[in-house]
Amino acid sequence: MRYAVRPPSRPLAPFVSALWYFEGHDLLHTRERVLPTGALQLLVNLEEDELRWWEGDRACSSSGAVLGGARDAPVVIDTRNQRRIAGVAFHPGGAAAFVRDRVDALSHAHVPIEALWAEGGTLRERLLDARDGEAVLDVMERALLAELRATPSRTVAFAVRALEDGRRVSDVARELGVSGKLLHRRFAEAVGLAPKRFARVRRMQRVLRVVTSGRRVRWAELAAAHAFYDQAHLIREFRELTGTTPAAYVPRNPDEPNHIVLE
Q1: Contact of 16 with 94, CB cutoff 8 Å
Q2: Rounded to an integer, what distance in angstroms lies between the CA atom of residue 214 and that of residue 98?
Q3: For residue 196, is it within any domain?
Q4: pLDDT-derived band of residue 152, with 50, 70 and 90 as boundaries?
Q5: 57: number of Cβ within 10 Å
Q6: No. of H helices and E strands in the chain?
Q7: pLDDT tens column, 47-93
Q8: Which of 17, 52, 56, 197 makes the best surface tag, with the fewest CB within 10 Å?
Q9: How many CB atoms lie within 10 A of CB 172?
Q10: What residues contact residue 222 under an 8 Å CB cut-off, 6+ apart?
Q11: Is 91 part of any domain?
Q12: CB burial class (10 A; 0-12, 13-18, 19+) of residue 235?
């Protein structure tokens, strides 16, 4: 198994968290649950020209090169179908700089790249022609630079940082000097989720970082530290956003807390 992660170049850094390449023909399991992060991802399957996943009991599929919209629920992926895949992890709100449409129109969807980018229809072929994983990431970075079309929204960037820190949506709107309704619209258009839904997902991401840190977890203290009503509230949120209980949660490895091996 090989997993390579590259930080973006300076022009892409305000929008992109990382570029990555995965090759795992030796994987023994066939399904993984992938947890929501509140951000979009570009996915290009280099194994097959198709992506397959499940949303609850519903089987889904798409072409092999897509922009995956922001989600607030886990999905299950077919790892047999994704033994060689490349991707881009965007910062929350970052994908808006690369698409013409409102990002909330892409939420909970896998949109083919050719529907979004003029050269998107050839992206997978260009990646397949790359000689190795590093060259794949080089091609992906050039494609992103060619499609970059906007500057970061200071309002959205401030709101993302504030909600990441656990601030209340109403307090963020007041500090920005905008109404809650206007913040809701601008945030959803750029990030893909409403502010409260985004804050909920990111709070769980903060919890997962603690759980996978190797430190002993005291659940009642963790609930209080992250503004859950009580431990029972934390457990309910954990189950809804991860598909499992805190006691049963075992990530693929501590560095990949959003991937849970199923079978």
Answers
A1: yes
A2: 37
A3: no
A4: confident
A5: 5
A6: 8, 11
A7: 999 999 999 999 999 999 999 999 999 999 999 999 999 999 999 99
A8: 56
A9: 23
A10: 207, 210, 234
A11: yes
A12: middle
